[in-house]
Amino acid sequence: MNAHDGYKTFSPAALLNMTAVPFLIDGVIPLHGLVEIVGPSGSFKSFYALHVAADVASRDDDPKNVLYVAAEGFFGIGQRLAAWQSQYRDIPEERFRLINVAPKLLVAADVDRVIATVRREHSQVIIVDTLARTMGGDENSTKDMTAYTDACGRISAETGALVIVVHHFGWNGERQRGSSVLFAAADAELTVNRSGDDLTVKITKGKDFQDGGNHHFTAKNVPYVAPDGVSATSLVLVPSDGLKAAFRAMSRYQDLLNVLETLGKLGATSTEWQKATDMPKRTFQRAIKYLHGTNEIVKEGSLYKVNQEKGATSAN
After folding, report:
1. Mean pLDDT of the chain
2. pTM for this model (two decimals)
3. Which of 105, 159, 279, 289 could form a disulfide with 284 if both were Cys (CB 3.0 to 4.6 A apart)?
4. CATH architecture for the domain at 18-242
């Protein structure tokens, strides 16, 4: 369609026949448009944004390609994702991509580069963390915030991707910082509040769906093994309103040890052990690396065994 064709129009009947709002996360985050995640400093809102990104990129049901604009804290994200995968599941590399620069969305050339990146990576969800680092203007200025919101709208319109922006609360900790233009334009707003290790994510705006719902998480230190073989931990959000799933994930290592014990006292090769589980190969290899690094298992030749001495020490 060119300019001479005018705009496409819809009849009331056509609108009524359109489906309900499609969701990225059912009842929480719509699939299209602009969403903001807001909260006070230290509320773990970036942890929540990363959790959403990892979850939708790795889920079995309708996974999405995610582009994460890590404009701050880039070098700590690898640790967080390693722990997230240890807690949950592997994230396919082709579905989760990150950039470590802070494009200024008030600069047309930077917006062009973001759009080009989204198209190249076939991204369906873009998470911008944070607004402050990617604005290049005055958050309190209605003019600048309008231009920023328009840039997000342009990215979404030209690529079809959902744009999620992480934004800070103001000094009083009660509302988002700066002009209210972004809130007015957003299709949804999620407000993150923290009390100790517990987080509440509240739907404080749903333009075309019901707002007001709360979702609860607990931040837990989860072990993982770094590429150099050293064991470490990082915080991971676990839904506290879905404890069965959380407990299943937390028991992954013990389940592996139980399977290994059932394979006999002589031990088992990694191939035999992996076949006896329903764990994906990459996840299994990462788990073995962790169990070996924490002396839960020993390797004799090509055979892995449960470290009975570790168990005896623990029992005492």
Report:
1. 88
2. 0.75
3. 279
4. 3-Layer(aba) Sandwich (3.40)
